Task: inverse folding
């Protein structure tokens, strides 16, 4: 069930902040990443899947410090999320 754009951005912001706190990083383009996610996804389950995937990427790659999430990484995660959720429907 989609949520309002403002609420979506707040949820995404909170999830990105949690990733930063958990791993001691700063997502340098956090506002841009939040907007990319909010423009691409409105379903709360897909948003959670996206941020969970990003958290896993951080855990596996241990980038530390300032992290710039590239558009290509965003797209890779997005494609995987959409594919997985399409199969579940």
Result:
């Amino acid at each position: 069930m989609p949520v309002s754009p403002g609420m979506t951005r707040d949820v995404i912001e909170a999830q990105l902040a949690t990733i930063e706190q958990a791993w001691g990083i700063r997502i340098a383009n956090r506002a841009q990443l939040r907007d990319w996610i909010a423009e691409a996804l409105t379903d709360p389950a897909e948003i959670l899947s996206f941020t969970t995937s990003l958290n896993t990427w951080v855990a596996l790659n241990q980038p530390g410090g300032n992290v710039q999430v590239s558009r290509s990484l965003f797209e890779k995660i997005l494609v995987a999320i959409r594919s997985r959720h399409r199969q579940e429907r």
